[in-house]
Design goal:
29 helices
Length: about 550
């Protein structure tokens, strides 16, 4: 053991002796040691700072608690939890300190020996405690109890739903408190557990898959919303697995015509979307995602859509989801005259939900409706982006340009695409730049470069060489502005760059047979810079003027 470790061990000795002597060996004392050990082994002790004889730490339990340990006077130690005089959080913090000098398992064994505790009875108590702890949720049971309580999945939609509900209630959801950063992993693991109960018949598995993923998405959304009130981007991203599973199930079902035996199940899911739309316990994000998805892929009958519109129009609530749902049905039925007022009134709010409609309309070759939707959303784009941070604007641009059918629009709706790209500037620059080059819209390309204001060196890689070769007359303003910029820097390196592009500009004027204009321009430059000796020296080196 190093000298430093010996010193730290001696620092821990007072608190070590206190715990060995005063931590009772009764049931309460054993619980504190066991729970502290569990917190320590799950790496839930964080931000440990040792300063002189004080230790500060945070322990992630159901909520984060702050711990302060006095190494000389343990009774003066504090914790933000109500546990007195010693709690599992202080115990866990002590273990995180003790591991630096010795094995924690050795300390626990020594303490048990000192208290004359039998390991076998301790393990028995551990099991009993765990059974009691999870008795309400049913997350942990004896094998004999599982055999008694195991429920059959059944063969009706309601029995499927009840079965999924039972498994969800038995699931240990403490992970959502302790390891929220691993949310997607917890969801994935439990979803696999649900899928182990899928019907054996191959044709029924996709339907069960839709049921399981839809159920789990709704329930986890309710759980998270009850815990914190809002969803962040990471949590919405964790839902993508379940959305993809529903899509996969729907895709498998669409290969063949649905058998009549599936009708009660599809009708059951349709009713569940009605229940979901009225739910105040779910996020608008999940409600809109599930509603549009299922009402596009699964509930396709025209009379169903007409009945749903009537139901939505009769509802008294006037929230964002109701407008999203109504807009979805109007777009699906091409009732665009009814859809237009909704977009006009809620355009900014609807933009973040527009990806589904844009993707589906163009993928199913409903080009006129897709074009109409983009035209309706266009006036709201700038205002929507103006309310986002620069990072969020950049993310939105990549997302929006990914769902727009760029190649089709370049060929058929070039003007509309230009308007969209203009609204998304500066984040759409590279897409806009390539589009203008491909379409040989050189005048607009020059205007774009003037708007962005890139250095001439950067423009070389963005198409300047190509445009100079093909349509040199358009590039003259860029060279003039760029050269003035280099001269204004007033240093040797910028003068070298100015001379480099002056030589290119001279070549362009010669190619255009406008030698007189070049001489007039260059003489003006020389007169304006007559005091800049370094620049004139670079001009002589570049053979722009005689030595």
């Amino acid at each position: 053991m190093t000298t430093m470790m010996r010193e730290f061990e001696s620092k821990l000795e007072p608190i070590n002796q206190y715990l060995m002597k005063d931590m009772p060996g009764d049931e309460n004392g054993q619980k504190i040691v066991q729970k502290g050990l569990l917190l320590f082994r799950q790496n839930l002790v964080r931000n440990v700072k040792v300063k002189d004889d004080l230790v500060l730490a945070e322990v992630q339990d159901v909520t984060t608690v702050k711990v302060k340990i006095d190494l000389n006077f343990p009774l003066l130690s504090k914790c933000s939890c109500p546990g007195m005089p010693w709690c599992r959080h202080r115990m866990a913090t002590f273990f995180s300190l003790y591991q630096r000098v010795n094995r924690v398992s050795n300390w626990v064994q020594d303490w048990r020996s000192l208290k004359n505790l039998d390991d076998h009875s301790s393990k028995s108590n551990d099991l009993q405690e765990l059974l009691e702890k999870h008795n309400k949720t049913g997350a942990l049971k004896k094998a004999s109890d599982l055999l008694k309580t195991k429920k059959d999945r059944g063969n009706s939609p309601q029995e499927w739903w009840d079965f999924l509900q039972q498994l969800f209630e038995e699931w240990d959801k403490d992970y959502f408190y302790r390891q929220s950063n691993l949310l997607d992993l917890h969801i994935q693991n439990f979803y696999r557990r649900l899928m182990k109960e899928a019907p054996f018949e191959r044709e029924w598995k996709p339907l069960y898959q839709i049921f399981a993923a839809f159920f789990l998405l709704v329930e986890i959304d309710r759980l998270l919303l009850s815990l914190q009130g809002t969803l962040n981007k990471e949590q919405q991203g964790a839902y993508e697995l379940l959305v993809d599973e529903i899509y996969d199930g729907v895709k498998q079902l669409s290969v063949h015509a649905l058998p009549f035996s599936f009708d009660p199940y599809v009708d059951f899911l349709k009713n569940k979307t009605n229940d979901l739309s009225a739910s105040e316990e779910n996020s608008t994000y999940v409600k809109a995602e599930m509603y549009r998805f299922l009402w596009f892929y699964l509930f396709k009958k025209k009379n169903w859509r007409q009945e749903e519109i009537k139901r939505l129009e009769e509802e008294t609530q006037d929230d964002l989801f109701q407008h999203v749902a109504l807009l979805h049905q109007y777009i699906m039925l091409d009732q665009l005259e009814h859809a237009q007022p909704i977009i006009k009134a809620h355009g900014e709010e609807l933009i973040s939900y527009s990806d589904f409609w844009i993707e589906q309309l163009f993928s199913t070759k409903r080009y006129d409706t897709g074009k109409w939707l983009l035209q309706q959303l266009l006036p709201h784009l700038k205002r929507y982006l103006g309310k986002q941070s620069e990072y969020e604007q950049s993310l939105f641009n990549r997302w929006f340009l990914r769902i727009i059918p760029l190649h089709w629009m370049i060929e058929h709706e070039g003007r509309l695409l230009k308007e969209i790209l203009l609204a998304l500037l500066p984040f759409s620059f590279y897409t806009f730049n390539e589009m203008l080059l491909d379409s040989k819209s050189y005048a607009e390309w020059v205007e774009l470069q003037q708007f962005i204001g890139y250095d001439l060196r950067d423009l070389d890689g963005l198409g300047l060489k190509e445009v100079t070769k093909t349509a040199p007359e358009y590039t003259l303003p860029l060279y003039h502005v760029g050269i003035d910029h280099y001269l204004s820097q007033k240093n040797r390196e910028s003068y070298k760059q100015a001379v480099k592009y002056l030589k290119k500009l001279r070549t362009i004027y010669r190619k255009l047979k406008k030698q007189e204009r070049w001489e007039t321009y260059f003489n003006h430059i020389l007169e304006k810079t007559k005091r800049l000796r370094a620049f004139h020296e670079e001009c002589r080196k570049g053979k722009l003027i005689d030595a």
